[in-house]
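Narrative of activities, Objective 1.

The group set out to show that a structural description can be obtained from nothing but a protein's sequence at a throughput compatible with the screening campaign. Below is one input-output pair from the validation batch, recorded exactly as produced.
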Amino acid sequence: MAYLNDGRPPLGMERVQRAPNLIRSQVAAYLREAISDGRLLPGQQLVEREICEETTASRASVREALRELEANGLVVSEPGRGSTVARLSETEACRCYEIRAALEGVAAWRFAQYASDEDLERLGQVVDGMADLTETPAALLRAKNTFYDVLFEGAGNAELARLLDQLHLRVNMARAASLAAPGRPAESLAELRGIVEAARRRDPQETSRRCVQHVLNAAKTAIGPEAASTICAPMLWAHAPTDSSAPAAAGSGFDHE
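Output recorded for this entry:
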């Protein structure tokens, strides 16, 4: 069978169920998951024939699935070149991180307030399990997806979770680059542990601040400090102390711990 990944093993997508109204959605879901966990990389070609062979879906269904993903900003289709996994421009990445920081700050605040003790335990267990994954960025990215699943569920706001789920699919392209940077996986793990510690204290402001800072630190690694300095993080400024330790100029989006 021809491979989607230039000689690497197949993506592990399942054969679709045969209900016609489900086929397009299933193919779109399989591709979305492969993009989310890094099996399909930005700029990678999506060959309809190969997807058809792996999923047993018709070419018409595959094309419909690709159009759905294109509408969500995950796939780019160009005449004569076919479809590829979308790449985020620097500006697009900045804006995605900006929105992500704001929404995740709200989710973290709500989690500290409303999460059950079981949710807190689950979040801690997910982070503890990441300790053995710092040398494997792809596995760490999947574990971080689980971390956010627990965080959003414990936050108790389904609409917030829906918005962040779609945003994470876009920003995962940059998140993968961030976690591949030397030293960043260990830093990321320490930041997530800090988020869990603040949530266990039921301190919504500190949980939110640490979550926003985690996003901004990831942005610095993924797109560079200069580009990340354009990110606006008003929730972080609202939490900053009113003394000389506060950031000097609004708009940089970073505090200095």
